[in-house]
Structure formats: C-alpha cells, structure tokens
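Its record is set out here:
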Amino acid sequence: MIYRFVAHRIKRHPDSEATASARCLHGECGWQAEPRVDVGTVDQQCMDHTGLNREHTTSARAFEDVALVECVEGPA
C-alpha cells in the first residue's frame, strides 16, 4: 500500500457569508440574538437585552460560515 501526503487549505466558501449570533448566559434566560451578517447588529441586540435586563451582562457570541476545503496542487 502506498500513502502520499496531499496538502489542503480551507477558506470561506465564495457563495456564503459569515454570520454572527449570540445568547444570554444569565441563568436560564434563554434569550438569543437573531443571527446577522453584521456583527455590530448582533452586538446592539445584546446591549438592548442588557438594557432591559440589568443583570444579564454576559453573552456568548458565535461566528459561523461555510467552509470549502481545497487540494493544493503540487508538492507540499
């Protein structure tokens, strides 16, 4: 059996956009920001939530995109 090393790279898929989302970490709050392409909009949703719920100051933010793995031509 012959094995060979093949180099790859990973990047955002050209037909996709990265999205940001967030959720409140205060107890069992359950609040979540609506996912958006603009992280600033998600940040504003978090600040608005804290404005209405003064003790809800910690949020988990997540960033997601679609990845494309490509084989790199030639020797690695």
Notes: The radius of gyration is 19 Å. Residues 8-71 form one domain. Residues 20 and 63 are 4 Å apart (CA to CA). The helical segments are 39-52.
